[in-house]
Amino acid sequence: MRGGEAQRFEVGAEISAEWWTLFGSSELDELMRAALAGHPTLAAAQAALRQAEENLNAQYAVLYPSVDAGLSAKRQRISGASFGDPAIPGSVFNLYTPR
User: Fewer CB in 10 Å around end: N or C, the chain?
Assistant: First the structure.
């Protein structure tokens, strides 16, 4: 029979903490050893996954639209002398410039 014995489910059976060894794959064994060496706990693996997701989101952020706005305000005084007639009374005004 190709592939070995048929699989069957055993209710209440203990599953090894190294469950991947049951597949008999050296490639899977090597992959799991590397993964466990880099992230020995579930919390560490989850943190690494969150970090990878945030790095990916940061790379896509350049594609998102952006908005920029600004406002400048000045208080100015003008006198009649600037128009050549010192008899005209001066006035003070505010100048608001949106950007």
Answer: N
Contacts of 70 (CB under 8 A, 6+ apart): 98, 99
- Tell me the pLDDT of the chain (99 aa) as tens digits: 466 778 788 888 888 889 899 899 999 999 988 888 877 788 888 898 999 999 999 998 888 888 899 999 999 888 888 778 888 888 888 999 998
- CA-atom Rg of the chain in angstroms: 36
Report the predicted TM-score, pTM, of the whole model to 2 decimal places: 0.36
Is there a contact between 23 and 7 (Cβ–Cβ < 8 Å)? no
Q: Are 53 and 60 in contact (CB under 8 A)?
A: no
